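Allow me, if you will, to draw on your knowledge of protein folds for a short while. A protein sequence and the structure tokens that stand for its backbone fold form the material at issue. I would ask you to consider whether the tokens describe a fold that such a sequence might reasonably adopt. Thank you for your consideration; the sequence and its tokens are set out here:
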Amino acid sequence: MTAQTFQSIAARPLPVKTEGVIPWIRNNLFGDLITSIMTIVIGGALLYVIPQFLGWALVRASWIPNFNACRVEGVGACWGVVAEKYRIILFGRYPYEEQWRPLIATSLMLGLLVMSCTRAFWRSWMILVWVLVLSLFFALMYGNVAGLSKVETDRWGGLPLTILLSTLSMVSAFPIALVVALGRRSNLPAIRTFCTIYVELIRGVPLISVLFMASFMFPLFMPQGFTIDVLVRVLVGITLFSAAYMAEIIRGGLQAIPKGQIEAAATLGLSYWQTQRKIVLPQALAMVVPSIMNSFIATFMDTSLVTIVSLYELTGAMSMALNSDSDWRPFKIEGYLFIALIYFGFCFTMSRYSIWVEKHVNKGRAR
């Protein structure tokens, strides 16, 4: 019997901390040589640019709504243009003395969107709330009821018009996209062909062309004396355009569902619509939440194109406010930065909400 000599095992290194600020910086900014070099170069450029921008935007800025004060040598950003023109930028050509109406209408619409995004309000009675708020929105904006003066839709503009177009087009485009995505996977050739033609036709042209057709060409095909409001035509055009892109997103989610699940549902005796509603769609939509929200954000930003059909939403109202006043015209950069901040606020909020929804719907697959 041979004697066995005890040999100790070499000590293993301590576990590397993978959570926190320092590990994140080490892994993402200094992970390898190329990454480290790029971090140093970009960081140095930002350290040079950011102080100059802050000096121009804040330290040397003029906040007084006086264009002469902005022309003094050494003055930075002229935020006085926002203080002077903010009502035109936010409300467009809406009558000045009646601008409390779009303010209340926009506040109601934003409150409705917040309620709709809050899980505690996900109840069937929210449909009635939507009908009530939309009715109040149009009553306040259009008037001609309850003693309110009538304001035609061609005078609507600014933030209320942006909120209206983006909200209604998103809400209307989603069910259309859902039906088209299911139609493209249908076994019926007529339905599949029709949905395919619709998607390929809409996706084959830019949104500007769709808006131009809806605003200028469509009325030429209408009977004599029959007209549809330009706001309605533009809203339909944006909705159909968004639905075509969203349909392809949803179709990608449908194709990701294993065929075995559908076959198992058929074995259990579930109908086509029961299978789609209880098994396929919940999983498919959960997979494509980020892409759907990306489509919503793109729709929100695409509303700026309606200026070509003489509807002055947020961007168009800002251009109109400054182009009509030669004294403030040189300070367009500050105006664009102001509306860019508004766009960023809405888009960033939608992005963060998308992350929350994605975590919520994917809890069942978390490990």
The CA atoms of residues 214 and 233 lie 5 Å apart. The mean pLDDT is 86.
